[in-house]
Amino acid sequence: xxxxxxxxxxxxxxxxxxxxxxxxxxxxxxxxxxxxxxxxxxxxxxxxxxxxxxxxxxxxxxxxxxxxxxxxxxxxxxxxxxxxxxxxxxxxxxxxxxxxxxxxxxxxxxxxxxxxxxxxxxxxxxxxxxxxxxxxxxxxxxxxxxxxxxxxxxxxxxxxxx
Amino acid sequence: xxxxxxxxxxxxxxxxxxxxxxxxxxxxxxxxxxxxxxxxxxxxxxxxxxxxxxxxxxxxxxxxxxxxxxxxxxxxxxxxxxxxxxxxxxxxxxxxxxxxxxxxxxxxxxxxxxxxxxxxxxxxxxxxxxxxxxxxxxxxxxxxxxxxxxxxxxxx
Lengths: 162, 156
Fold this sequence. Notes:
heterodimer, A: alpha+beta, 5 helices, 4 strands, about 15% strand, rod-shaped, B: mainly alpha, two-stranded antiparallel ribbon, membrane (chain A), transmembrane helix (chain A), Thioredoxin family protein (chain A)
């Protein structure tokens, strides 16, 4: 092998090395970007998971006294004195009213039971519910008062006191 | 350069700038939609889980995972559309996500969902209708057009 060929080989290997380094440098932002994205996903997922669990707990605590429509009806037929709080999970006004009304009723020692009436068409018709939230006072087997919609705290307070 | 030589050149450059503008508009609109959708879901992640549950398509065990992952994917797709380097993969993301959403909506077509379609967070109870599905078809068409325009550029 002559000197010329050896030099040619050296030049080619040098060029190959340079090419490899150039490719490595080109890949660097992609690798860095992927690592950053993975870290963001991980942190985001943990934060969101905590948020999800917290809200779930809050919802569970808020509606822990929830009764079904049939349970409510048996209370009515046994002539209990209680408030039925008709709500729907998607109703925006209920999202405002529930965290205010349910703890207030507990504080006042009033028997208030949330009833989810989403999709219960027969309940809407039977109790002539026009919208949610609807707070209905049952006494001696019949309705004695009703408050519909998003109302002020004092309005709910006065209604519960009656 | 003669007048006859200059005209086609001007024509093609104005066509190219029109295509660039169209691509930019498509990217901005789709990115805006997906970022808005992701943020609306982040605001109330638990309710988004309930929206997914209301579709009656997924097992309960996967609800939380998907409620967390989907908005993150939407966020990345939105950001990806804004970065020229990642716009192609983000456009594919738009197509896949929109196909999945459209599939879910078609499965519940005509049904009253408690949160509406929930595409941009919870809404009032509403039946799934043509407009809900059409919205997703529009996103798919937009992303496909973006991919096509980028392909043309590569071929040129």
